[in-house]
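Make up an example, fold above all:
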Amino acid sequence: MPGPPLRIPEGFLIGTASAAHQVEGGLWNDWMRMERDEPGRIKNGDSAAVAIDHFHRYREDLALLAGMGHTAQRFSVEWARVEPEPDHFDLSALRHYAGVVAACRELGMEPVVTLHHFTLPVWLADRGGVLDPQAPRLFARYAAACAEAFGEEVRWWLTLNEPNVLMALGYAEGQWPPHRRSPVLALRAAAGLLRMHAAAATALHQSGAARGRPAMVSIAHHERPFRPVPGSLAARFGAWAPDLLFNRWFLWSCMRGRMLPPAGRGEVVPGPRGSLDYLGLNYYTDERVRFDWRASSRLFVSSDPDPSLPRNSLGWSIDPGGLRRAVVSLSEEFRLPVMVTENGVADEDDELRSGFLVDHLRAVVEAIDDGADVLGYLHWTGFDNFEWLEGYGAKFGLVAVDRATLERHPKPSAEVFAGVCRTGVIPAPDHPGGASARWACLSP
C-alpha cells in the first residue's frame, strides 16, 4: 500500500543548486580554453560562452526560484573571475558575488557557497592545476578573500565539488581538463585536492572564528556506490577497490587527518581533521558493475545497469531507495549531519521529474525517520544549463531556457516542487505528483 503524505522537518533547507561555469557565461578558464582549442569534445559543438547568462540575470532568476517557495540556493564562485591573474583579485567580481549572496538573503533563501566547481583559472592550470605544490596555499588565499567579501552572510561553505569525479575524469580517464590519463597522476590529484580542501577549510574556519560566527564547511561528495552484478564473484571482488577509492578515500582521509593509501602512506596532513562540519552529498545513482579486464582506467569494472530499474536520458538507473541508503549509511559511518547538495534527473521532456522529486524527497524524510540528521535537499538544478561534455543536451532543470532567446519557462515539475516547498508536505506516491506506481512501465 502506498504510504501517506510526509512532512519535511521545520527548518529544513530546500531549493536548487548550480555552478558558475554552467550558468553564468562570459568566463575564461581551463574549460573555456578546451572549448576553444578542442571544440569536438563537447556534444553538438555546444558552448558555455553565454550559458544561460545568469551572471547578468541572477536577480530575476533568484526571484523566480524564491517565488516557488525555495528556502536555499547553492551556487559557486568562479575562481577565474575573482583572480583572473595570479596575485590580482578583481574587486568588482567579489562585489558581484557578494550581491548574489545579498539577493539570496533578501529573497529568504539561505546561500550555500561552493568555491571550486571543476574549473580552474588558466594561469593555475598552466602551473599544474591541482598538482601544483602551491595550489593549497593559493586556494586558501582565494577562500579567505571570499569569506572577507561575504562577511557574516554566508554560513554554509563547500570547498570542492566532487573531488573524486575530478580525479576520475580529469586524471584517470582523461575526458576532462587537464586530459591526463595516468593512475599515478590521478592519485597525485587526489592528494592535491585533499590538501586544497584542508587549506581552504582552515581559512574559512579562521575567518568565521574572527567574526564570532562559526563557518560550516564541507565538500560536495559524489556518492556513487559500486554494486556488483548478482552472481559474479569476479564483479564482487572487482568492485571493492574502485568503490573504496571513489566513495571513501577522500572522506576517510579527512576524518583521520592522514593521507591514506594508495595516494599516501598514512602521513599526517595539516588541516583535514575537523575540516568537515557536515557532509554535502551529491547522489544520482548506484553504479551496478561487472568485471572488465579492458577497463584499466576504471580499475577493471564497467557499468552494467540493472534492467529492472528505469533510467534517465543519460542511461543512469533511477532508484529512490539508493538515496535513502546513501544518506543513512554516510550518516551512520561519519556521524555528521548530511545536506543533499545535488540530486536530480536528466529528463528531456519533463516526464520523469515530478515523480522523481516526490519519490526522492520521500526517501530523504524516510532516512530521517531511520535516524539520519539531514539538513536539507538541493535539487540539481533550477535551470536547464550547460552540462559539461553533454552540452545542453542533458536537461536537469525545473525551468527550461530557450536557447535562442534565453527566455525562462517553468516546467510542470517546477510547480510540483514548489508545492512541497510552500506547504512542507510531500504527497503520497500515488498522488498525481508521484510516480512510484509508474516506474515499471517506464523501464527500458
Observations:
- Confidence is low (pLDDT under 50) at residues 432-444.
- The chain has one domain: 6-442.
- The domain at 6-442 is CATH 3.20.20.80 (TIM Barrel).
